[in-house]
Design brief:
Elements (H helix, E strand, L loop, with lengths): L1 H30 L4 H11 L19 H4 L2 H9 L1 H6 L3 H8 L14 H17 L2
Helix pairs in contact: 2-7, 4-7
């Protein structure tokens, strides 16, 4: 009887926390992307048509080294609404605008701050890998 009770206690002390961690992790993933890999997927879906991860120009500038040249706050504002940054007479934005025929569009998918953060995290990782 004591052995069965002891086994149940051990099972509960190990399995219950493991189940809670699994549920929390699964719920977090269900809520949305949460890693640099998810940032890569967002980049591939929304950004790579116009931007290379190198210095090569496409429709827009290459993004190699972007996290070294721009602050995270600036990138977040730009990704959220390039038009708003332009309207603020931001000198960096005005310089970018002068070098390209088209202004980056405001993408509805980038209204979500978590999506912007994931893309920025992915760009940081890309810059760290390609020093």
């Amino acid at each position: 009887m004591e052995m069965i009770l002891y086994s149940k206690i051990i099972a509960r002390s190990v399995l219950l926390p493991a189940a809670v961690v699994l549920c929390v992790t699964t719920a977090a993933r269900a809520e949305g992307p949460s890693s640099a890999e998810d940032g890569r997927q967002l980049y591939n879906k929304h950004c790579k048509q116009c931007h290379k991860l190198t210095e090569q120009l496409l429709v827009g500038p290459g993004l190699a080294g972007i996290t070294k040249r721009r602050t995270e706050e600036w990138m977040d504002k730009w990704i959220a609404s390039p038009k708003a940054v332009m309207a603020s007479k931001d000198p960096v934005a005005e310089e970018l605008r002068s070098g390209f025929k088209t202004l980056m569009p405001t993408l509805p998918a980038m209204a979500d701050s978590q999506s912007r953060k994931l893309i920025i995290d992915f760009l940081k990782e890309n810059d760290a890998e390609n020093k």
